[in-house]
Specification:
- The chain has about 120 residues and is mainly alpha-helical.
- The protein is built from 7 helices and 2 strands.
- A two-stranded antiparallel ribbon has the order 1-2.
Length: about 120
């Protein structure tokens, strides 16, 4: 799948997949929202409003109100790709969220996931 296809995916659909991944492993929607909000600066209410909308995944990240400066601390492998080596800034943001949700699903404590 090309980057453009990923960027054009519907946010609500992708969010649903991320939520499913985490909840299958015993985590909660509130925890998923906390992670997404920490990374992007959106509020939980904004996330809920975006779910039924036509917002694409790329625009979700492009329009993030306050990307967390500590997102640079996110490192490691996700989907066979080392997050810190992704060259495209938008794809790096997407991979960072993937990595955080992976950590959440694997049972890591929230303090470590949020790089506190």
């Amino acid at each position: 799948m090309t980057n453009d296809k990923v960027f054009q995916m519907n946010f609500g659909k992708v969010y649903g997949l991320l939520l499913d991944k985490a909840t299958r492993k015993g985590r909660t929607k509130a925890e998923v929202d906390e992670v997404v909000c920490w990374l992007t600066g959106y509020s939980p209410e904004q996330l809920e409003a975006f779910r039924p909308s036509d917002l694409c995944y790329g625009d979700f990240f492009h329009n993030a109100p306050q990307p967390n400066p500590n997102r640079a601390l996110i490192k490691g492998m996700v989907c066979g790709v080392r997050v810190e080596e992704v060259e495209d800034p938008l794809m790096r943001e997407i991979r960072c969220l993937d990595k955080l949700i992976d950590e959440l699903a694997k049972g890591k404590p929230m303090e470590k996931i949020l790089r506190k």
